[in-house]
Request: fold
Amino acid sequence: MNKVDGPVVKRVAVVTGGNRGIGKEIARQLAAKGLQVIITSRDEGRGRSAVQELLATGLHVKLQVADVHEIGDVARMMERIQSDYGPDVLVNNAGVILDRGVSVLDVGESVVRQTLETNFFGALRMTQAAIPLMKKHHYGRIVNISSGLGAFEIMQDGYGLKGSSSAYRISKTMLNALTCLVSQEVAGIGIKVNAVCPGRVQTDMGGEDAPLTVAEGADTAVWLATMEDDGPGGEYFRERRRIAW
Ligand SMILES: NC(=O)c1ccc[n+]([C@@H]2O[C@H](COP(=O)([O-])OP(=O)(O)OC[C@H]3O[C@@H](n4cnc5c(N)ncnc54)[C@H](OP(=O)(O)O)[C@@H]3O)[C@@H](O)[C@H]2O)c1
Reply:
């Protein structure tokens, strides 16, 4: 929590990969709800231009330059965020898809590793760095931006993709597992951890022809990031409804 003029007023939210796409929109919606938002960007220029865009609309948003691949970046970032009395909210949004159209039988091991490095290890690093700070405040909301493509239920029926994007899909299955395990570790101490499938959203990743706007894609994550203490933990959502892992 950020202390401004005496009493506690603002929750502090960190959104990884907040310089574009769904992450930037989650940052926008959280800031519009009155949170102090810190976006992370691995590229300073792209991060600055996103922050300028949001500041120009009157929203309070700061930038931390960090690549979620780098444990040193994550540690330094958390140290700085701690001075803002945060984070209360962590949205693990940064993600890559590097094996579109490639069969699981052909995907290179290095591509799988690179994908896991961002989509799974990035979230793990951020979570491990954030939880001790959240424990101090007896409050935390962690939202992992997953994908329905990582759900066993959908993988079992093929979803018309026949093993394509398997590195991406496996990374999201692992992120789902992380969601369940961390949620159990912090149960009962004010910290809620959930996963979200945003649906197919109009971003660089989702493509222009995707059915959902970024505002629609960000909605469930923002809802979970700001829910009350009696809200769910260790669950997987799409359009604010629980879905199967
Ligand atoms: N769009 C969809 O239809 C859809 C569907 C299901 C799930 N998702 C998930 O939603 C999340 C956001 O997707 P999006 O559509 O907004 O994608 P996007 O437009 O491609 O944006 C991805 C963001 O992640 C950042 N990022 C990637 N690697 C990073 C790293 N190592 N360190 C820090 N930041 C990094 C990117 O930064 P740079 O600008 O530096 O590359 C960018 O800000 C992802 O986790 C994605 O898997 C998206």
Notes: The chain is about 40% helix and 15% strand. The beta strands are 2-3, 8-10, 12-15, 36-41, 61-65, 89-92, 140-145, 191-196, 236-238, 241-242. The chain has a mean pLDDT of 93. The pocket of NAP is lined by residues 16-17, 19-23, 42-43, 46, 67-69, 93-96, 118, 122, 145, 147, 198, 200-201, 203-206, 210 (CB under 6 Å).
